[in-house]
Design brief:
Family: Belongs to the TspO/BZRP family.
Membrane topology: Multi-pass membrane protein
Protein name: TspO and MBR related proteins
CATH class: Mainly Alpha
Largest sheet: none
Order of helices and strands: HHHHHHH
Main location: membrane
Radius of gyration: 16 Å
CATH architecture: Up-down Bundle
Number of domains: 1
Subcellular location: Membrane
CATH topology: Ferritin
Distance between the termini: 51 Å
Number of strands: 0
Shape: globular
Length: about 150
């Protein structure tokens, strides 16, 4: 039973934290006025995509916490979460598009290192991060394009 409480904790932290940061740093008039590339998705798409990703990230974090002996994979998991949570305030609140691009590229590196590190110990946790990798690759290209256009 204790394991399930731990999973719920990971989900509340990850999904709750992500949704809270998204709410507090919601795109406003500044973002609406930016030039955006043709591949920019509609705004309504971001919340459901991130909600699903945050649940997958939480499950991977929980599995890593439960199944690994080394502290290194969990440190990487926490690093990617911190970078993830940092990106929105830097982009949407500070309006620092270039700094946000640097953060999202560091996030991508942290995610890839996490996947490579956890692969041997827990392939399910690694696979849970694959959609996250794909979305952050896309988000990085989008951030770079917005930076270039503005």
């Amino acid at each position: 039973m204790k394991r399930w409480y731990c999973l719920i904790g990971f989900i509340v932290l990850t999904l709750g934290g992500g949704l809270l940061i998204g709410f507090l740093t919601a795109p406003g008039l500044w973002y609406a006025a930016l030039a955006k590339p043709t591949f920019n998705p509609p705004n309504w798409l971001f919340a459901p995509v991130w909600s699903i990703l945050y649940v997958l990230i939480a499950i991977a974090g929980w599995r890593t916490f439960e199944r690994t002996d080394s502290a290194w994979p969990m440190r990487l998991w926490w690093l990617q979460l911190a970078l993830n949570f940092l990106w929105s305030p830097v982009f949407f609140s500070a309006h620092a598009i270039g700094a946000a691009l640097a953060i999202i590229l560091l996030l991508l590196v942290a995610i890839l290192i996490f996947v490579a590190t956890i692969w041997r110990q827990d392939r399910v946790a690694a696979w849970l991060f694959v959609p996250y990798v794909a979305w952050v690759l896309f988000a990085s290209a989008l951030n770079a394009a917005i930076w270039h256009l503005n």
